[in-house]
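In the laboratory, one determines a bound structure by crystallizing the protein with its ligand and collecting diffraction data. In a computational setting the workflow is compressed into a single prediction: the sequence and the ligand go in, and a structural description comes out. We illustrate the idea with adenine.
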Amino acid sequence: MNQKARANSDIKDHSLAAAGELRVQWASREMPVLELIQKRFAKNKPLKGIRISACLHITTETANLALTLKAGGAQLALCASNPLSTQDDAAAYLVVKENIPVFAIKGEDNKTYYRHINSALENKPHITMDDGADLVATIHKDRKQLLSDIIGGTEETTTGVIRLRSLEQSRKLKYPIIAVNDAQTKHFFDNRYGTGQSTIDGITRATNILWAGKKVIICGYGWCGRGVAMRAKGLGAHVIVCEVEPIRALEAVMDGYQVMPLIEAARIGDIFITVTGGMSIIDEKHMKAMKDGAIVANSGHFNVEINIPALEKLATSKRQIRGSVEEYTLSSKKRIYLLGEGRLINLAAAEGHPASVMDMSFANQALCAEYMVKRGKSLKKIVYPVPEEVDKEVGKLKLNAMGIAIDTLTPEQRKYLASWEAGT
Ligand code: ADE
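The predicted complex, in structure-token form:
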């Protein structure tokens, strides 16, 4: 064990490393695309000498990404992208067995969270890897002296991409970013099937409720909301969607859901799930309208979708009734149950997205890091999409790994599709 990595880390418990190693290996079984990339990286070392600071959920899947980047020659430092999402055994494994510095402890307070971000930045990154844009924001606000070394960054999630586009639009973005979230092989799968399954998993582990027959209110019908709605419906819930964007609302209607304003849904819902990326979606007026026993959870990136300060004010008492469940009693004696402190419930109360979808998300991350090293110096200080060839390659590799063959166009069909002359 490397004493330097140990000293240069802040994790919960080094003795969890062996358990972490087994779980990281288990996750790797479902990450064949990343494994292929890892093998190529180990041979070609495309990240040799490159320092990467990564602010990601520290999970067994992220550990496999870290191993891939390390195999490519990168010098890594990792910190958590959410105070409640760290898997302490995965963190211990990376530090103790892989000598990768990690700054992340499940349940850390906000001050520690930012101290950890700053510690990961001590790595003086050439590349930043974000899930929510906190590294980029910290560099732009407080650590500008790091900019001279930075080639570029990648961003994993919708909320982070929105923040970075805002930085770009205000002409303050200081280095190029690739929006990994926007790759088709990322958001079609991770956001939809990953969030869909892991959100239901988190709420089930936290509460052990039966979904069948429940009225489930989904706030937001983006890719994540679509996924959660689909899975809740599959379990027999009566799903109601609340959405501010008219075309998405229409899509929800035609997907077979009831659609209504949240204030109406508030009166009838049993379980409320926010997946919007916005703030104060579930506000005081909604909580006042809820039934006794309503369960409230968030699966969006930040813990601002449920107005928790308003809930605290409305409540006359609160108690922790189960691991990830707080019971708030209002003056009317009504009880509202808040899950996972309003933080993303799939990681706070479960294990996040299954490895099989993170395989594609993190294959994009690894390939985009390689792309940044090759092309970063020629890129502008804007937010870029994932190069199409990378996205397509990830999709092809995943299909291959799943043993699924597909058809190809004949030359004649290709010619037909490229022409305009032929009509009826
Ligand atoms: N985001 C959602 N699920 C995740 C996971 N399992 N690992 C890393 N980031 C995630």
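Residues 184-207 form the longest helix (24 residues). Keep in mind that any predicted model is a hypothesis to be tested, not a measurement.
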